[in-house]
Amino acid sequence: MSTKFEKDPNYNFDEKTLDLSWEMFSNIPSLIKHHWVTDNYNWEIVNFFTIVHITAIFGIFRLKDCSPETLLFAFILWPITGWGVTVGAHRLWAHRTYEAHFLLRLFLMLSNSMSYQGTIYDWATNHRIHHLYTETDADPHNSTRGFFFSHIGWLLLKRNPATIEAEKKLDRSDLWDDPLVRIQHLCDPYYIFYAVFFFPAQVAYYGWGENYVNALLVAGSLRYCAMMHMTFLVNSAAHLWGDRPYDTESSFAVENPIVSFLCLGEGWHNFHHKYPFDYATSEFGISVQWNVSKLFIDIMARLGLVWGRKRATAAWELTRERRRHQEIAGNVNINPVPLPKKILVDTKSD
Ligand SMILES: [Zn+2]
Ligand SMILES: [Zn+2]
Q1: Which ligand has an atom closest to residue 140 CA?
Q2: Which ligand places an atom closest to the C-alpha of 130?
Q3: Residue 103: which residues within 8 A CB-CB, separation 6 or more?
């Protein structure tokens, strides 16, 4: 297994490729050729994403023809189906940060299916490997291979042998033990097109008489494609641009408010990599840090559908105190990480 921060020997990228530089774009043609010559494309995904992006572009031109109800419906589907990934696949199944009632798990499994990013089983597998082997060859979306790779490129290629090796060592029996995760995985890929494209279209068509093609292209394709890219930003932008107030040693993960807004509170990624067991994935509540996924989990807890929410604020408090003492002692070399700006806000909200 490769060591931390060891780059893929096939790429020889330097630090400049971590931004959207001219060098990154100019590398794309040779990369396309390289993967063609080495037969490294995952054609199922390449074809699927091609369909998604072409139909989403058609959806942009249909926006002006849609009824206000359809536009509102597509907008509401953003959090509703997004929670299937953030609250469900990520915080519940991948990290087990809280426990949930069967009814909530059922809702999350269905909403996850409408924002399909692989099954929950595969998503949680990749995500656990990402946390265990961050920014090594085994990391499925290793951000040291550049923005494009960590955003979407990794999905277009066959899996790295190091990732496959890491998967063999991974315990994911808890995922398979959940019947809802198992059913969704066993039905893959037959439900995808219906859940992602045709079900939202039917709701708009039968619900308020929207033109079926408009509904399919806007509430289906365009909504899905936009959400997919918002989520992908957690793997790309939230490993490239932002502050690292909690941890500069374990990963390049950063705090990125824009990603947090677009991805329902998942952009507080430096805190999350430091404390992956925390159900909020951020230090503060919604009054300080945008985090509608935390808000949703808290509401579900009030309704009795969620319990056992884990927090890392006590662990972080200890680390913060240690840093203060080191600062007072003038020992800046032990932990040179600056305290987060948010620490100045005294009213911590949970
Ligand atoms: Zn990450
Ligand atoms: Zn995570």
Answers
A1: 1
A2: 1
A3: 305
Nearest-ligand number for the alpha carbon of 239: 1
DSSP 63: G
**Length reported for the chain:** 350
What secondary structure letter does DSSP report for 42? -
CA of 172 to the centre of ligand 2 (A): 15
CA dist 78 to 204, 293, 336, Å? Answer: 15, 12, 39
Q: Which pair of structure tokens corresponds to residue 228?
A: 């997919």
Quick one: pLDDT band at residue 8, thresholds 50, 70, 90?
very low
**Number of domains, the chain:** 1
Q: How far apart are CA 34 and CA 39, in angstroms?
A: 9
Q: Which ligand has the nearest atom to the CA of 250?
A: 1
Cα separation, 282 vs 89, whole angstroms: 17
pTM for the model: 0.88
Residue 333 domain boundaries:
15-344
- Ligand 2 center to 194 CA (angstroms): 28
Question: Could you tell me if 260 and 284 are in contact, meaning their C-beta atoms sit under 8 angstroms apart?
Answer: no
119 in any annotated domain = yes
Distance 317 CA to ligand 1 centre (A): 22
Closest ligand, as measured to the CA of 251: 1
215 Cα to the center of ligand 1, angstroms? 34
Interval between CA 273 and ligand 1 midpoint (Å): 6
Distance of CA 287 from the midpoint of ligand 2 (Å): 22
Which ligand approaches the C-alpha of residue 142 most closely? 1
- Record the tokens describing residue 33, joined without a space: 């050729």
Query: Does residue 349 belong to any structural domain of this protein?
Result: no
Burial of 83 from C-beta contacts in 10 A (0-12 / 13-18 / 19+): buried
pLDDT (tens digit, 9 = 90+) per residue, 9-59?
444 434 434 557 787 788 888 888 999 999 999 999 999 999 999 999 999
Q: Which two three-digit tokens encode residue 159?
A: 């899996």
1/163 Cα distance (integer angstroms): 10
Residue in this structure with the two tokens 């790429």, named with its chain if needed: 11
CA distances from residue 298 to 91, 98, 124, 261, 265 in whole angstroms, order as listed: 13, 11, 22, 18, 13
Q: How far apart are CA 300 and CA 83, in angstroms?
A: 12
